[in-house]
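## retry 2 of 3
previous attempt timed out at serialization; input unchanged, resubmitting
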Amino acid sequence: MAHEIDNQKGFAGFASFKQTAWHGLGTVLEERMSIADALKFGGLDFEVQKSPNVHRFPDATEQVSKDSFFTYRTDTNCVLGDKLGKGYTVMQNNVALDLVDELVNKQSMTIETVGSLCDGAKVFVTLKNETPIDLGSNDITEQYLVLLNGHDGNTAISAYFTNVRVVCQNT
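## retry succeeded, writing output
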């Protein structure tokens, strides 16, 4: 599964607007998505918690770490990251992606794709600018804004522009 689409909830954690992705997974929606739709149909509507790592010694004693933590999904108890420091802060998907509705409503953007990758360790939303770059002579380039939120301690909340419609880990 090179695409790394999450299947923790028993369905592919991916949704797209009007166009099926190359992998053929997820839900294709004919109506424009709100962030609430994206969270639901893209499988991003889960909560993440951070807990201290517990160290077990050969004599069966345990020690709870004060400096080493892990993150996990509360709906599946799937560990997402296990080498986190005490300063790591969990940013829930609904909070991290809250500005999407404002971009859709005020900036002429459409939610094109949304997905959960690596069991939920990374989530993304791809927004399409409704005005492409037109260089003339039928040379049209679409513009996308990708928002990424990570729960593994390796992926920071990020936003970047691209001309690629992101649909999975490969893109």
